Amino acid sequence: GGRINVAIDGPAGAGKSTVARRVAEQLGYIYIDTGAMYRAVALAANRAGVLPSDADRLAELVKTVDITLEPGADGQIVRLGGENITTDIRSREVTLKVSEIASHEAVRLRLVEMQRKLAEAKGVVMDGRDIGTHVLPGAEVKVFLVASVQVRALRRYQELSEGELVPLEQLEQEIADRDRSDESREFSPLVRAKDAEVLDSTELTIDQVVAHILDLCRTKT
Ligand code: C5P
């Protein structure tokens, strides 16, 4: 069969990136983490002293920002003007600011344009919030991956480095806040596409989720 595009959306910490990366590996496809692109813009804004609320300066910044994604040994490498920022974009500071940055229309227009170009040739597994609804409405497979907020906070907690330890309840609160912000924004909010399959990973292993998505892909290729 021919190559297809796979869209994996859902709230923070549902396991999208791990699952998407593995599905891409299995299919020999390219994995694209769109959250990393919004995080790269948030990092660039932070470094330039641009506030997450400053629509005009963000619109300027996003015009010139040079973000590239490339496959690496353990996942995707993200570069900003050539500099490897893969680790920097996972900081708490970026995580706390990224949703407001991602709410601006100018930021979204620019990144969505890049994302569509990356998926033009098909053979892409893309994860994010608006992939099935807005970026790739024609994606052959669409999954909306969810999990309880408790499980999502616990997974994030286990990923924190020693220097960043925060109480689990605080993480839960921050994840819930980020979901609310992503769901309630005006431009392409986080919402399930009508034709997306909902997968609840609360009580599933990563392997089970991956196997299920690969089954969906098999019926389309
Ligand atoms: O996926 P990740 O948690 O790294 O995404 C960080 C943030 O980027 C999300 O909370 C959301 O605000 C934004 N985002 C988005 N649209 C996407 C991917 C991410 O608005 N397609």
TrEMBL record:
Query: Which UniProt keywords are given for this protein, alphabetically ordered?
Result: ATP-binding, Cytoplasm, Kinase, Nucleotide-binding, Transferase
Location of the Cytidylate kinase domain: 6-217
Catalytic activity annotation: CMP + ATP = CDP + ADP; dCMP + ATP = dCDP + ADP
Q: Which GO terms describe its molecular function?
A: kinase activity
**Gene3D superfamilies recorded for this chain?**
P-loop containing nucleotide triphosphate hydrolases
Q: Does the keyword Kinase apply?
A: yes
* Cross-referenced CDD domains: CMPK
Q: Where does ATP bind?
A: 10-18
- Which Pfam families does the UniProt record give? Cytidylate_kin (PF02224)
Where does this polypeptide localize? Answer: Cytoplasm
- EC assignment: the record states 2.7.4.25
Q: Which InterPro entries match?
A: Cytidylate_kin, Cytidylate_kinase_dom, P-loop_NTPase
Protein family according to the UniProt entry:
Belongs to the cytidylate kinase family. Type 1 subfamily.
- Could you tell me which NCBIfam families the record lists for this protein? cmk
The protein's name? Cytidylate kinase
Instruction: Specify the species.
Output: Paenibacillus lignilyticus
In the record, what lineage is assigned to the organism producing the protein?
Bacteria, Bacillati, Bacillota, Bacilli, Bacillales
